[in-house]
């Protein structure tokens, strides 16, 4: 992460930033890399406060805006992003990490409509709402003098299962595929506006969601065993990829789905 220091002079927004998962790692990564104004959100206010405290313990001079709320709630998403823009006067880097796993291995005919709606409302709709609000604010501003080639950069978190499928995960795979193609479409639509939109597709990452139970560990073991590196990734390894895509070092990368999965998808 040291090589990325001072590459983030603007304002960053991170969703799903509570706890010890990918979003928290991204938010802390921005702070380490020199971003002094960071807005974070998560549905869990307690874990969100933990991320804020961790950022401030690293660098007390960072200005942190934290607001707990539901990423699938249009009014909350718009309010959070508008408050961020109003307070900091711009929005340069947006990372949409909020999401849930598909839960139990379940085939399509066994899945309830309520479970399907919850999965897609958080994973896809939440990312779509966030992107819309972020794009609206980025379009209001001129590029930073440090980043003359980009007015803003958005990175969405998809999944290796947005690229390939696995048994018993039809709805989850579809929700993550939707994020990838939404990313590509937005990249096309806003390239002329100097806004870059990319996504990262993590493999099995060691987070509270993936280590929550023995049943979850057993369900994920085949995916770990198939991948050439044969291990879980860390949230920090995903965060490094995210920060690279946000940075000026990635100024000619647009609409890309960067897979960070220990080689799972090359099989």
From TrEMBL:
GO MF annotation: an example: oxidoreductase activity
Database matches in Pfam families: adh_short_C2
NADP listed as a keyword: yes
SUPFAM superfamilies assigned: NAD(P)-binding Rossmann-fold domains
Keywords associated with the record: NADP, Oxidoreductase
Gene3D superfamilies referenced in this protein's UniProt entry, alphabetically: NAD(P)-binding Rossmann-like Domain
Keyword Oxidoreductase (UniProt): yes
InterPro entries per record: NAD(P)-bd_dom_sf (IPR036291), SDR_fam (IPR002347)
Top-level taxon of origin: Eukaryota
Family according to the record: Belongs to the short-chain dehydrogenases/reductases (SDR) family.
Protein name, UniProt field: NAD(P)-binding protein
């Amino acid at each position: 992460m040291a090589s990325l220091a001072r590459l983030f002079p603007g304002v960053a927004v991170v969703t799903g930033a509570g706890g010890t998962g990918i979003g928290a790692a991204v938010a802390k990564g921005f702070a380490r890399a020199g971003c002094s104004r960071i807005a974070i959100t998560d549905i869990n206010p307690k874990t969100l406060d933990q991320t804020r405290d961790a950022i401030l313990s690293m660098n007390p001079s960072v200005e942190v805006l934290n607001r707990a709320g539901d990423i699938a709630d249009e009014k909350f998403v718009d309010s959070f992003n508008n408050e961020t823009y109003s307070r900091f006067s711009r929005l340069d880097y947006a990372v949409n990490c909020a999401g849930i796993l598909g839960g139990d291995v379940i085939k399509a005919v066994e899945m309830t409509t309520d479970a399907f709606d919850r999965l897609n409302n958080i994973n896809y709709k939440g990312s779509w709402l966030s992107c819309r609000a972020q794009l609206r604010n980025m379009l209001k501003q001129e590029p930073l003098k440090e980043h003359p080639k980009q007015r803003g950069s958005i990175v969405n978190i998809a999944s290796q299962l947005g690229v390939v499928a696995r048994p018993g995960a039809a709805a989850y795979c579809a929700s993550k595929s939707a994020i990838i193609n939404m990313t590509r479409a937005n990249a096309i639509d806003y390239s002329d506006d100097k806004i870059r939109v990319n996504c990262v597709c993590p493999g099995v990452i060691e987070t509270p969601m993936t280590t929550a139970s023995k049943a979850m560990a057993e369900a994920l073991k085949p995916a770990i065993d198939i991948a050439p590196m044969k291990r879980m990734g860390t949230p920090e390894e995903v965060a490094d990829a995210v920060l690279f895509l946000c940075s000026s070092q990635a100024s000619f990368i647009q609409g890309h789905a960067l897979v960070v999965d220990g080689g799972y998808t090359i099989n």
